[in-house]
Amino acid sequence: MLDRIARRSLLGAGAAATAVGVAGVAGCRTAPRGGSEEGPNAATRPDHVPYDGPEPDLPGNAEIGVPDAYLSYPDPPPSTGRIPVGISSPVELLVQGAPSATPMDRNQWWQRINSDLGEPITLTAVPSTEYTAKFQTSVAGEALGDLTQIVVVPQMPQMLNSLFTDLTPHLGGEAVEKYPHLANQPPASWQVATVAGKIWGVPQPRIPAGRVMLTRGDIFEERGIDLIPELADGEAFLDLCREVHDPSSDVFCFGQLPNDWTVPEILESLGAPNGWHVDDAGNWISAKMTPEYERALEIVTQMFVDGLYHPNSFSDPGSSHVWFDAGTTAMLSQDFANWQSKAQVLDVPVGALVMPQWDGGGAAAKHLGSPAYTAPVGLRKTDDEDRIDELLRTLDYIASPFGTQEYLTVNFGLEGRQWTLADGDISLVPDRPDETVRGLNYAGASVWRDLYTPGRPELTETIHRWCVDQIPQGMADPSRGRYSETAVTKAPAEDRKLGDLEGEIIQGRRPLSDWAAAVEQWNESVGKIIAEEYAAEG
Residue 390: which domain range? Predict the structure, then answer.
């Protein structure tokens, strides 16, 4: 029935392929392949000095973004030896997040962190949907915290120079070795903290795997399909979609906005640029301007005509996770971090597709995502060298690496109160008090940079092998690490117009022939200017 889908699981690749995949494949790739993308700010990056901690069970490659993976946690976990940090006065932190449920004066987890630091760290946590407005108000009133999460706003370079501390002398090159946990951050993660050749903050590293199309293993298994099937080409992908789609049983292939989520997956399969392409003459070309984009729109329109989407995909996109969790939809495109969390919450296997080259020839080059959360934490402008050192040591503490006691304190809380450790597995206490210091991990925590799934070593192995296969040959967005004023100020409105048109075309309310003129108008309004501003950074 699915003659184009090879019935072979990714788990059959074997451990030997893992080692060869990371070391061998990466060695023959150059930027923009893999997660080691080079940008105009590469020369200012901090040196990378891996932390001398537990050996990973499944080694990765920090230079290209492949994570280390661990099948157990050291027991007992050693201390980093860098506490108490010894700061001399309290630290104010302004970050995204909801307020902590338990105030500091009654919060034992928070108090332990304060004890490790030597002085309290106070947080103003603002929901992400409201944070940009709060940040802009704080910038206007020069009312920033000692440490503040930086989001992209108009006149970004000027704002940074005026209100934040240039950390290049303190973290660039070998200077970072004074802060060994920051030196342990993956090299590419510093892109998000670097503007105009200067380091303005500390990033929270992420695995740069971009988006993934998650699969429900129970639905796939019922149809005799592997959790991560091998797809020969685009037609095999469409065959798969039709196979798992069964509206008569209230099971739909997809249940989310096709233009926001499926179009990017098809673009990847067609070999389109990841956001932007720089040709041999140095010209910057948006993926929107390529023939692959129009073809992707045509393919997804036909998928919608074929009824492969939940009927409320456009009217109720907020239910996309609810539908997938309930087994109403078989596949869900999301950020890579959702894979591990979905698999831990749902009582079914969860996989992720490897998109094929649409016309055949093997796997498509993965469109890589950001190597760090896109809002780093910076220091309010000061010339006080001692205070700069204290704040960087605070961030160094928050970045405590996997395998250490301090990593557990920052990210999980207190042993016996929030978690227990037995036989190499961390278990959360069922009736644990909610003392999470919300927002703290945005300040450079390393909890998202490695793979570890307590009690689920097979899941860790599956996800790691997927990363080994996909990230080294992935395609980076060359605009990452560059700043365009037009992209920040004028492009969002123009992008919304194009996105709305995509939705209208997919639903059959506008003809596909309207796309060419609309995207040309976008290019004239903002695209060409953005390209010039990116190119100007060298």
Answer: 72-207+372-452
